[in-house]
Amino acid sequence: MTPWVITEAHAISGSHPLKSSPLQSQCNNASVAGGIFWNISNKTNLTVGSGAEGFYMALSAYLYEIMKNETYQAAASMSHKFTQSQLLSNISTCSGCARDMISLDDCHYPNKLILNCNTGLYIEGLTVLGHTSNDTELLDIADQLSVIAVKSSQWSNPSGFSIGPPSDVRNDGYGTPTFRAMLIRALHEHWSRSQPDSDIARLIGAYLLLQYNSLLEFGQYPGKPWYSPSWTGPPVPHLVLWGQQGAIDLMNSAISLSVDPSISDSPGPTGTGETSMSHRKPLALGPIIGGVTGGVVFLGVIIAVIVVIRLRRRNGTVSRAQILDHSAFTGGRILGESFQPAPPLPSATAPRGRQWLNTQHHIEPFSASPHADPSSSNIGPPPRYKEVVQ
């Protein structure tokens, strides 16, 4: 991909060795250096796409994090500057989100697409580069874009459910249903590197859990591990590749969230008086572990009963009443009355990337219930996990 990058020298000269048409040195009063040509087969096509920019920036940031080679840092920084100056939109429904592409022949935008995957890739690149470079400005931008992404009416309905493709999408070779997964992965990356009890971590965690529970409640076909490309349903009665792929990314995020105490036990962010989803335990791990423990305890009691009965029979002192009266082995209490489920699993011990910064922008809590009717703004209690809602 590197040969298709526009360097400062290319921008100044207004030409690129792999393109036959001249390009603008500046667009929007900023250099076009850092752009990456989207169409590599057409020598006259000077389109730069957000997808290529986002992938290149994120990859370069990860390589810099691993290799500590400043060449990768410089590459990621150039992509960031190009995206910031040339590709961010100003539309009311998603101000600051990444546009799909720009053409450098005359600085026009070939389409009006605002895709969640493009903004997701940019958030991911900002997050990794910001933490690796200790650049708080990049992290603040990632915070702001994350808030925009989860609350934008461009990608979510009034209840907070992610707007996806129709449920019957089966053979979309371009993978439209998977675009949303790129945003999910980016938000999870930003969540995992943020201070656990910060507003942005709570907001992202609540949003991801909302989508996860929506997928289980509305997008999963009953009795089958089939998931609809549309997380708000209806479920599809057959296997859909794009639905499975999107579900994997969402479930991977939910696994991490299930063991984080900042999501399940801590109070949510304040400011609106609404109940945050961070008050709920996202996955019922406590009752599961408690049930397993209870089963082991019950099995142990049964074994103890058998052993004691055999010992008493051997001594000739056991009676039928004693055999039926199990209170002798439970301290006079009915088995199970004093049993308490085991506590939830401890939180992951992997270090988080940075201490929370007191940024100027205000983040309101995300409060939608994960089992609301996607077609309605009336939020109701979640039926699937109602036993663990506090």
Automatic annotation (TrEMBL):
Superkingdom of this entry's organism? Eukaryota
Instruction: Outline the segment boundaries, as ranges, of region: Disordered.
Output: 361-390
Checking PANTHER family in the record gives: MEIOTICALLY UP-REGULATED GENE 191 PROTEIN (PTHR47791)
Key words, A-Z = Membrane, Transmembrane, Transmembrane helix
Name-wise, this protein is Glycoside hydrolase family 76 protein
Instruction: Give the transmembrane ranges.
Output: 284-309
UniProt keyword Transmembrane helix, yes or no:
yes
| Gene source species | Cerrena zonata
Please give the InterPro entries that the UniProt record associates with this protein: Glyco_hydro_76, MUG_Protein
